[in-house]
Specification:
2 domains, 33% helix, alpha/beta, 20 strands, 4-stranded mixed sheet, GMP Synthetase, Chain A, domain 3, ANL_N_sf, globular
Length: 439
């Protein structure tokens, strides 16, 4: 690992690459894209015949997804790593919870995302350094960059994440599968200035802080890996003494977005290209090309998340495109029967916002289990009556269906059942639309 590479990337991102206009952003993207396509044509067997000499646009290249990435792993990567070897190492690391092993200097890991389908990622040492410098530039508070203690809660560790450690910034990895009480004790001793964790973990920490079991007061808190719901963000912020909860849109496919000091999510367009597959009303599915990732190229990767573009300009003045919010997985859009006989798409964010109006809800999950049936899992606040909360939730969901022109769904209520073994999804569709339910 090169400290100079990390420092160089940090300085470039923080101070030397302001990109104050859209024209500057697009010039940088074009320059990086030409260089990247030329590299892939020469070094990736998969892209060798797909990219003509001198290519400078993505239009002719096919879309990619997790299934293609896994099936063509050996041809796609440019470092000669074989899928079976990488997969065996990643599985062994998951079982042992020791993520220090590399293959030829490349970090290897598994990702299931929220879809549950296994993916494999590969990152070179140079890419780790660039990621570390870029991540620090985007996350460290303005004004002070030295002496920070970063606590990072992850489902799987990796040398990619450990690369941010230095004498200037100390770093501690917390395994979310480890004993929660032991994690909390170690977190209190570490006293992080920056806390990074999935919303489900942040909620668990917030609950312990609320009842006085642990004291944690970081300068900044970042939510990662799961959709941050509005109500959850408010509760976490109040418990941890934050003005807002920041977000890092980081996944196997790259570091895609970060929040500025005004709390607006900005796409990291100084290193990626995002094509937009429109869904209407400002929503879109991102198609990602990482312009600097070479060991395992991410080119026109259809991510399957639902993002919503911000209409007005962010007060921070950044030329990077802004998002209103990350709404969830495309596959978790509820498909309810319409009153006209068709099907009505109910985006997860609409359901989450509707639940904000129901009084007395402490935790919830809304799951579509059949064409016209939703299971609503609830944990009610201590001072609320469960029957009254259920009635309020039913009324709000009925009102949402009416506004959208959908048939009011049948509701089944159940106790809230957290699952620490998978990512938190407040809104989920298990009914596939073909008469079957996902298991």
């Amino acid at each position: 690992m090169s400290r100079l590479r990390i420092l160089g990337e940090f300085a470039s991102t923080r101070w030397l690459r302001p990109l104050r206009s859209r024209a500057a952003v697009e010039r940088r993207q074009r320059r990086l894209l030409r260089r990247h396509l030329d590299f892939l044509r020469r070094r990736s067997p998969y892209f060798r015949d797909l990219i003509p000499r001198g290519a400078d646009d993505l239009g002719s290249l096919p879309l990619m997804d997790k299934a293609i990435m896994m099936a063509r792993f050996d041809e796609l990567n440019t470092v000669g790593v074989r899928r079976d070897e990488a997969l065996n190492l990643a599985l062994a690391s998951e079982r042992s919870r020791d993520f220090s092993a590399d293959i030829d200097g490349c970090s290897v890991g598994l990702s299931s995302g929220t879809s549950g389908h296994r993916g494999l990622f590969l990152v070179s040492a140079a890419e780790r350094d660039a990621w570390a410098g870029y991540m620090l530039a985007r996350t460290l508070p303005r004004g002070r960059i030295l002496g920070h203690r970063i606590a990072l809660f992850l489902r799987a560790g990796n040398t990619l994440y450990g690369s941010v450690a230095s004498r200037a910034v100390s770093f501690s990895y917390f395994d979310v599968f480890a004993d929660r009480a032991a994690n909390l004790q170690r977190l209190a001793r570490f006293a992080p200035t920056i806390l990074v964790a999935p919303p489900s973990v942040l909620l668990a920490i917030a609950r312990e802080v609320e009842r006085g079991a642990v004291s944690v007061r970081p300068e900044k808190v970042y939510a990662v890996a799961e959709v941050l719901e509005i109500a959850d963000g408010r509760r976490i912020a109040a418990a941890l003494g934050q003005r807002m909860i920041h977000q890092l849109y980081q996944c196997t496919e790259g570091f895609l977005a970060h929040t500025c000091e005004h709390g607006t999510l900005h796409l990291n367009e100084d290193g990626i290209v995002i094509e937009r597959e429109p869904l209407g009303d400002g929503r879109f599915v991102p198609i990602v090309t990482d312009l600097r990732r070479r060991a395992q190229p991410i080119v026109r990767y259809r991510l399957g998340d639902v993002l919503r573009a911000r209409v007005d300009a962010c007060p921070c003045g950044s030329a990077l495109a802004a998002l209103e919010r990350i709404e969830g997985r495309e596959g978790d859009t509820l498909l309810l029967p319409g009153r006209d006989g068709g099907t009505v798409d109910v985006f997860a964010d609409l359901v989450s916002r509707t639940m904000l109006y129901a009084d007395g809800v402490s935790e919830y999950r809304v799951v579509q289990v059949d064409r016209a049936r939703l299971e609503v899992q609830l944990r009610v606040a201590d001072d609320a009556r469960e029957d009254a909360v259920r009635a309020d939730v039913a009324a709000e969901l009925a009102s949402l269906a009416d506004r959208l022109g959908a048939v009011r769904p049948e509701l089944g209520f159940a106790p809230y059942a957290p699952d620490d073994g998978r990512k938190l999804r407040r809104v989920e569709r298990r009914w596939r639309g073909d008469g079957n339910a996902e298991l």
